[in-house]
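Handout, section B. The chain below has 333 residues.
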Amino acid sequence: MNKRITYILPIVVVAFAVLAAFATLGHAPEYMKVSGMVFGTSYNVTYESNEELHDEIKAVLDSINNSLSPFNEKSIIAAVNENRDVKLDDMFTEVFQLARKVNEDTDGAFDITVAPLVNAWGFGFKNGFMPTDSQVDSLLDIVGMQKVTLEGGKIRKADPRMMLDCSAIAKGYAVDRIAKMLSAHGVKNMMVEIGGEIVAHGKNGNGKVWRIGVTKPYDDTLSVNTELQTVLSLTDVAMATSGNYRNFYYKDGKKYAHTIDPKSGRPVQQSILSATVVAPSCAIADAYATSFMVMGLKRAKEILSRHPEMKAYLIYAGENGENHVWSSPGLEN
């Protein structure tokens, strides 16, 4: 009797293992969610999978934080800004090259060397001050992507005081990297969002395309306004929004917006209040949304006419202060 049981038990164990394997194969994937804080803002990732990938998401965010965050004193970009010898990684190099490409395409409206001016006006990662005209003119001498190059794996500056700030492209790039990692794990349905920059693929938990709201551009430094201007139905694209309605301050009765014109060295005074860009990658959408805030409505339309792969939803102020909307043909669909 005992001998017989000895032969049967392995068969039973194998049978249970096979049943467990089939049960796993038949188990419908679940929509998982993970949220947290990074780059001074929040992130939210929703994805459908049988595999929990929270640690992998965190690892991607940590690697980008260690490469591109000026708030991280140990990051590569912090070392570059302080003229310390540092080995550039693939992420830093990729973002720098993409930033240069957008800089050339926008005739300098997008410029990651604008950090000294952003700091001077009180919006950067250093303590700012209200600069005088002469101080602004002086800082313009150390701004301009044509004054910095990538040679032999090193950043070469025309002036050691130059500083880089990839804040207007790094969040979008991080969204792309997370989406790419999820795709590599077989995830087809996902929504990745960092600070309002988004990649959406497939469908949501209700089996429909993702619906993303565009906030009305009211002055809202506390980020409590939730009233929506419109809702876009998106899938298999990226979206980014830039606006001056949440990051600004008043001094002596005048409003100072956080977007700095790299050519004038001063906060932008364009009529665009909010620029939402839909593009194949979130880094591209992020960079061009900022560019459009600097360029204004007319030049933004000119850029869009050259890039059929991009679409935009622009909210701008009329002559009497009323809000108007312009959107790319086809975006309403």
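Note. Residues 249 and 256 are 5 Å apart (CA to CA). Compare this with the example in section A.
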